[in-house]
UniProtKB/TrEMBL annotation:
It is found in: Cytoplasm. GO terms for cellular component: cytoplasm. The lineage of its organism: Bacteria, Pseudomonadati, Pseudomonadota, Betaproteobacteria, Burkholderiales. This is ATP phosphoribosyltransferase. GO terms for biological process: L-histidine biosynthetic process. Lacks the C-terminal regulatory region which is replaced by HisZ. Keywords: Amino-acid biosynthesis, ATP-binding, Cytoplasm, Glycosyltransferase, Histidine biosynthesis, Nucleotide-binding, Transferase. The gene is hisG. InterPro entries: ATP_PRibTrfase_cat (IPR013820), ATP_PRibTrfase_CS (IPR018198), ATP_PRibTrfase_HisG (IPR001348), ATP_PRibTrfase_HisG_short (IPR024893). Catalyzes the condensation of ATP and 5-phosphoribose 1-diphosphate to form N'-(5'-phosphoribosyl)-ATP (PR-ATP). Has a crucial role in the pathway because the rate of histidine biosynthesis seems to be controlled primarily by regulation of HisG enzymatic activity. Belongs to the ATP phosphoribosyltransferase family. Short subfamily. PROSITE patterns: ATP_P_PHORIBOSYLTR.
Length: 229
């Protein structure tokens, strides 16, 4: 299959921001379906700008939480990020991002999890003030505010499951895929907040000025994501 960009190359290549790991791995088949292959792996290459088989597209490798920032400020024309990351970003930095496509990859849930044996429902019912550890502070704040639950939010950047085990928090708000890490640390999901998947995001200015270059790729992503749904 030929790339949708072959006839659209004009000036600088389109820049797609991706993060290492699951999102990168699950984006590759969508690019393959568009006739594009990434010629180097971020796991083996030290390069942060990766070429593709199409001269009209290059990949930049950034932290997952930084993808929306690179796209919003025009360092990347488009990117792939989880809804959890996008929701946190948009609250702090409104405007500048267009989210046209749910790619149906990176699926998981944002959940409240607590130690096995902790009576979360009873604590909520009697109005206890809970300490919640999370890196998704805004999502957690909105969730508990809507329920009328009083919480103290403790922002962490990793090893969330450790917080209840050492008495730092009563519960956590985190992403859950298989739940294996929770079970290994004697935690269990006590409440689902929202289903998460990864989205294609586009810089709004780029969409106006480079639509003739971006639209074939957007269409290819849309077809591939629908096929994988």
């Amino acid at each position: 299959m030929s790339s949708p960009l072959n006839s659209a190359v004009s000036g600088a290549p389109i820049t797609l921001a991706l993060s290492k790991g699951r999102i990168f791995d699950e984006t590759l088949p969508l690019l393959d379906a568009a006739g594009i292959t990434v010629t180097e792996s971020p796991e083996t290459s030290r390069k942060l700008i990766l070429p593709t088989s199409d001269p009209g597209l290059r990949i930049i490798i950034v932290r997952a939480s930084d993808v929306p920032t690179y796209v919003q400020y025009g360092a990347a024309d488009l990117g792939v990020a989880g809804k959890d990351v996008l929701d946190e970003h948009v609250i702090e930095h409104p405007g500048g991002l267009y989210q046209p496509i749910d790619l149906n990859i990176g699926k998981c849930r944002l959940c409240v999890a607590a130690p096995v044996g902790f009576d979360y429902e009873n604590a909520v019912r009697r109005g206890a003030r809970l300490r919640i550890a999370t890196k998704y502070v805004e999502a957690a704040r909105q969730h508990f505010a809507a329920k009328g639950v009083h919480v103290d939010l403790i922002k962490l950047y990793g090893s969330m499951e450790l917080a209840p085990l050492v008495g730092l928090a009563d519960a956590i708000v985190d992403l859950v895929s298989t739940g294996g890490t929770l079970r290994a640390n004697n935690l269990t999901v006590v409440e689902d907040i929202v289903d998460i998947s990864s989205r294609l995001v586009v810089n709004q200015a780029a969409l106006k000025t480079r639509r003739h270059q971006l639209q074939p790729l957007l269409d290819a992503f849309s077809r591939a994501s629908q096929a994988s749904a």
